[in-house]
Amino acid sequence: MDITESRQTEAQLRQAQAELARASRVSALGELSASIAHEVGQPLAAIVTNGEACLRWLHRQPLNVKEIEECVAQMTNEGNRAAGIVHRVRMLMKGAPPERMAVELNGVVAETAALIRTEVESHEGTLLLSLASELPPVFADRVQLQQVLINFIINGMQSMGTVAHKCEIVVASVTALDGNVVVSVRDNGPGISDQNLPRLFDAFFTTRSTGMGMGLAICSSIIEAHGGQIWAANNRDGGATFSFSLPPVNIPAAVK
Amino acid sequence: LLNTPVISIVDDDLAVRRALGSLVRSMGWEARMFESAESFLASGEVVNTTCLISDVRMAGMSGVEMHERLVAQGQAPATIFICAYLTPMLQARATGNGALVSLQKPYQVSVITYWLSVAVGAP
Fold first, then answer.
1. B 44-83: CB under 8 A from A
2. What would the pLDDT profile of B28-67 be if each residue is shown by its tens digit?
3. Which chain A residue's Cα is nearest to B19?
4. Cα A206 from Cα B97, distance rounded (Å)
5. pLDDT in tens, B84-123
6. Complex ipTM, two decimals?
7. pTM score of the predicted model
8. How close A244 gets to chain B, by Cα (Å)?
9. How far is B21 from chain A (nearest CA, A)?
10. Which positions in chain B touch A67 (Cβ < 8 Å)?
11. Which of A95, A98, A104 is nearest to A175 (CA)?
């Protein structure tokens, strides 16, 4: 194989990877549809209610300008809120070119939780956050990190399909002793079997009949591209925990 | 003014709560707003409430649980449930207990105003 040919193969490989990443994002979005409908439903309810109220205020004498003003201001606010949700979903779907900046991970966790909470609750589960009070910023692409967290949470939830008790997922953040920031997603499912544990992050590895087996592989490549590490382990008291760590902004990524 | 109907609104979403409050006032009635089932139950406003509009899913006690408690105490006002994610099971449980209706957000406002009029007994 000459150099040109090998470059072409490499480019094709990269394109295939990007396509797969996109497909996995879209399938994760499908699973998120209940959450998205919920998130958009709230501001829409507020907008139509304010619209009706505003019309009624306009027909009342004497005019109550304060009420009218309040309705219109709220409509604008809530329109912006809905637009923000649409924007976030679009970013997830499009796989906009990675845009790295100093990111506060607790904020990323909170945004992701807002997107996915309803999905967890619609499966009668609970989503809890246990966040460090202060974290050093990391240099990262917010949307990609959201994608990793969504994958972790959906995986945790789906592992619960076979158990009788209620699903509880805890997303925690902490600064490790080495200064890296660690985010973990803990479930109380059946845990991971010893034979599956080493293959979890391999491409096309899945235990579900409908899974593509790309979710965790893509998470792994995202975290590695950020100079971080990704791992999974069983909890002593049942269930599994998926984690990733990222170096803080001021310290260069550790050479592995 | 003594007989102005009081509509209590329980929703943990501030924007929805305020919008419904404005709607109720624009219809000439009084609005009381609460961000949780617990705060409504503790407010002492239950007995003054002509009609209750409540979200179903909220942090803490759910709207359905709150309504069940009020029914058990014989104090449940006419109730309209609104919910952003309404499953058939939830709907059956909500209305099975005597609520007027349960509506999915975003609802048609004309449907809300219709049921409000029914609850208040206005033409």
1. 57, 82
2. 999 999 999 999 999 999 999 999 999 998 878 999 999 9
3. A50
4. 44
5. 877 788 888 888 889 999 999 999 999 999 999 999 987 6
6. 0.91
7. 0.62
8. 29
9. 9
10. 22, 25-26
11. A104
